[in-house]
Specification:
The complex is a heterodimer. Chain A is globular. Chain A has four helices and five strands, in the order ββαβαβαβα. Chain A has one domain: 2-Layer Sandwich (Transcription Regulator spoIIAA), CATH 3.30.750.24. Chain A is an alpha/beta fold. By secondary structure, chain B is of the alpha/beta class. In chain B, strands 1-2-3-4-5 form a five-stranded mixed beta sheet, with helices on both faces. In chain B, α2 packs across α7, α3 crosses α6 and α6 runs antiparallel to α7. Helices cover 68% and strands 9% of the residues of chain B. Chain B has two domains: 174 residues, Globin-like (Orthogonal Bundle); 112 residues, STAS domain (Transcription Regulator spoIIAA), CATH 3.30.750. About 5% of the residues of chain B have low confidence. The chains are: A alpha/beta, B alpha/beta. At the A-B interface, α3 and α4 of A face α8 and α9 of B.
Chain lengths: 120, 305
Amino acid sequence: MEVPILKQGQYLIATFQAALSDADLNQLRSGLVQQVVKLRSRGVIVDVTAMDVMDSFASRTLREIAHMIRLRGAVTVIVGIQPEVAFAMVQLGLTLEDVATALDLEEGLAYLNQKFKNTH
Amino acid sequence: MTKRNETARETIALTNQSVELGRSEAPSELLRELVAHLRQNRTQLREEWVVRIAETRLLTAMTKEEIFAEATSVYDSYVEALETETFEALQAYARNLSERIIPRGVETHEVVGIVLLLRDVLARSLFAKYQTDFKKLNRILDAYEPAANRIANTVAVGFVQERERVIRQQQEAIRELSTPVLQVRERLLILPIIGVIDPQRARQLTEQLLRGIRTNRAKVVVIDITGVAAMDLTVANNLVQTVEASRLLGATVIVTGLSPEIAQTLVTIGVDLGKMNTVGDLQGGIEQAERLLGYKVVAIAGEPS
């Protein structure tokens, strides 16, 4: 199942619906990296609220997305990680270092707005 | 082979049965006689039992009158259990009794002790009654002993079960009390940890905190460990994991109140504290959290500060 990428003002929003295959994740990664420059977006929000399991591949892909997007000149926020998922990830050593995280979509938008407040 | 074994066993069983039938009375008849004897001498035997309890200094937490009252009901339930050979009523009574006496500090050995004393007192009275007829005494004891042992077992197990239930209940209560996640400002939680942290409690703390972050939509969490005396490697790692997991939920964690001993331990065992935000005391932690959230505490002009 392909993950739709929505444009919302200056930001892109990708919402995971359910468990995704590795191919879907790869597709999402290349899609986001292309769109972010094409649509001149400054921020990307990846919403993983619906994921109740996060394997190492998904977590590594999330980190790669964040780093690639930074190289393309935008900021990524991962939002909606479930408490159980967060603890399981940390126990597996998947801590998404240097990737911004927020509680939910609203918080993620607030984070980006705060970040770009002075540069409108 | 198996078949033949079974047949052999059946034969043995049959022989045993015929031996029993060969005796003058069935075990139930003997028990009835026994019960009649115990009913007849109720007052005297009960008194003797209470005296023995006092002599052996059991149930010191209870007054003499209380012991006498309990002894009467225990005696009656005991005889009833012997008579009916059903243990449910006795079991219920034992549980009820335990519920009453456990809060008063009665120990397991005391409860087992008094039941065994009663068994001995009754056995002695049987010796006295049948001392002229040794064969009859033997048969009576054959009927009495298994039943008496089962009663002692029932009471002891009932007591221990009740005690375990109380302990479980208390553990649960302590566990719930020991992990409060408190909101002190909009989006600011504090988690004061007091006492010994074992891996199980550490896990529970983490779960409760992560859930608290979600329900209170917290952005900053202050974990205060002033009340923690010592910390081992497992627990320290768990603390680091808690900090990382909280960050995945979008919350910043500030750890306060690390004692010199714990700081020393953490440095010695080489826990990676680079990702941890630490402040000396709880006040400093809350102040920093307020700064992160954009609050500014100002004294009201004109009021003495």
